[in-house]
Amino acid sequence: MIEQNIKGPVLVISAVTGESEPIAGFMERKKTWNPGKRPGFHGRLFNKEAFILTTGPGTVNTAHALGAALEHVRPGLILQCGCAGIFAQSAGKIGDVGIAESETDVHMGIEPPEPLDVITIPLPFQLIDAEHGPSPNTFNLNGGLVAMAQSVLTENIQGGTFSILKGPFITVSTITATDERAARLYSAFSPLMESMEGAASAQVAAHAGIPFLQVRAASNRVGKRNKDEWNLPLAFRNSAMAALCIIEHLSIQD
Questions:
Q1: Sheet strands (E) in the chain
Q2: Residues 36, 73, 200, 41: is their CA dihedral positive or negative?
């Protein structure tokens, strides 16, 4: 198993309480913690100091909540978890757990010349003075943390019902609701999963110089919306299981 040493507590963030409640249920010596008037807890997970924060959905909520949290605590790791849509082209399925290798804000850029094109043109300037990916709105995540998470999850929780995957993630402000748009996004970014918060978390973490890891479970396929095929309880459960497994196997120095 690949090891990663983290100096400081772990801050676990998710968009909605359904994603954070299963993790909070394992917390010992739990006290309420409400930076920026956001719901959260402070306590111990596997005898390690931990904070849990529900940010609210979307990039603005996420950036505000993280900014407020970082005024009070300097975590050794920001761990984002929750549900996401999975791209059919990735061969993943609902319930699978994905680890983000990078995060791209697909709506940050310049309007494309073709009115029907869904892909923005990258900005001609950087968003922050920090390492980033192939474009200003892409953030590459820590390769050591990604490898550690894949190793830990594969060895400890991968089973016959779901797989552990890794790949690029994208963040959207408009949920993809057609197969045509899903195909264009996949052609442009080859993403594994789509969410509404990850790029904000990655950017704030990069600006603050704090290691960031994102692990999500698929609740639905990206494309034409069919809520009958969604499985939020499964995604919440698998995502929380993955986050707890990672925290359990982290070497954290309080």
A1: 5-7, 10-14, 28-32, 40-45, 48-54, 77-86, 97-105, 138-140, 164-171, 193-195, 212-221, 251-253
A2: negative
The phi, psi pair for 60, rounded to 5°, reads: -65, -50
**Are 72 and 8 a contacting pair, CB within 8 Å?**
no
Smallest CA-to-CA distance from 220 within 195, 185, 189 is with: 195
Q: CB within 8 A of 14, min separation 6: which ones?
A: 20, 23, 53, 54, 55, 80, 81, 82, 239
Q: What is the pLDDT of residues 15-42, one digit of tens each?
A: 999 999 999 999 999 999 999 999 999 9
At 143, list the tokens. 């390769």
Write down the pTM of the prediction: 0.94
Domains within the chain, CATH numbers bracketed = 5-253 (3.40.50.1580)
